[in-house]
Each structure stands twice: as structure tokens, then as C-alpha cells.
Amino acid sequence: MPAPRTERPVRIGYARTSTARQGLASQLEALHRAECHKVFKEQISTRVKVRPELEKALALAHQFKEAAPETPVILTVHELKRLARNAAELMTLSAERGVGVVVGGVFNSGLLADPRPGATFDYTTASDALLSRALELQVVCERHGVPLRAAALRFPFGHPAVASVLVGARNHAEIEDAAAMLQSPAPAALWEELKALGLLAAGIPTPQGVH
What we know:
By secondary structure, the protein is an alpha/beta fold.
């Protein structure tokens, strides 16, 4: 059994505002609490593709990783919008720069693990519309012999920036189940049918093949 990892992660902070009227204080305070090794900050719009201080932060992250490959290096921001306007833009930004993304909440706090009346979505009871959509997803998955949980775990890996997924578990059995579901094959025909039925957007990246 390999020895447990003991290195503390190196955190590199990035703070950004679009205008001078927006203050950096709350971001800087949050990054300080996160114990960032160094913080880069700038005033620039997310519409600007090349952000000098962000590039410096990423360059430093790569330097740390090259010097100590076993040490986790984490680019830390206070809010997603400090990096990108939405998740899709963040994924593109990450892929372009070779930065791996860990996707959390793949079960949407429960709805995609067990869609039933009373299931939760973002930690509140799912609406009838969301429950109905999750049940539709489940029916299609079952047609292809894939548990909905497995599809939810495998779906993020369709994007080249995704390095791993993060799953919340209440006990050891749920951890073992998640590990087993992650190994379940999901055929390309599953994603194709989900797109054909409008349950996935036509242009969204999906995993290739069955693995």
C-alpha cells in the first residue's frame, strides 16, 4: 500500500474585478483565509482573452508542479466569475491552458443518484419539472443498460479539461458504489439518444466509446 500523501497543497490565488468601482477587498480576504502562497490581482474584463496576471498565476503553478510533481498545486479564486462568465467558458479556458478541472456535484445533491419524490436538487427538494426530467434520463439510461448514477459520473469526462469528479458520500457503501459506477461502461449510443431526445444539448461534449 502506498504511503499516504502528506504534502500540503500549494495554493495560488487570483483576484479580478472588471471596473475600478468593484473592490478587491473581499476577494483578497477570502484568498488570505485560504492560505494562498501568492495572490495575483488585476482589473480587467472577462471578455479580454489574455489576462496578464492570470497568465502569471498559471505560469507559477506550472513552475511549482515541475519542481515538485507530487505536490498538489491549486489555482484558487473566490468566485467562478473571477475566472469566467460561466462554467462553459471556464472549461474552455482550462482546456486551452492545460489545467485539469475537478467536477463536483455530479449527482446534483441527490437527484441524479436516486430520482424519486422528495429527492434533492442543489440541497432543496427538486421541483416536479426537474424530477420528471431526471426520470426521463433514467429511462433512457436503462434502455442502454447503464445506471443513471454511472451516466452522471461518466458524463463530465466528455470534456477534455476534466481530470476527475468529486462525489459526496454519507457512508462507505456509497463510496464503493460510486467507484463501481465510475467503472461502468457507457456506450456512445446512450449519449446520442439523449441528444436526439433533447435531454442533452446537441453540441455538448460527451465521452467517446464505452469506457
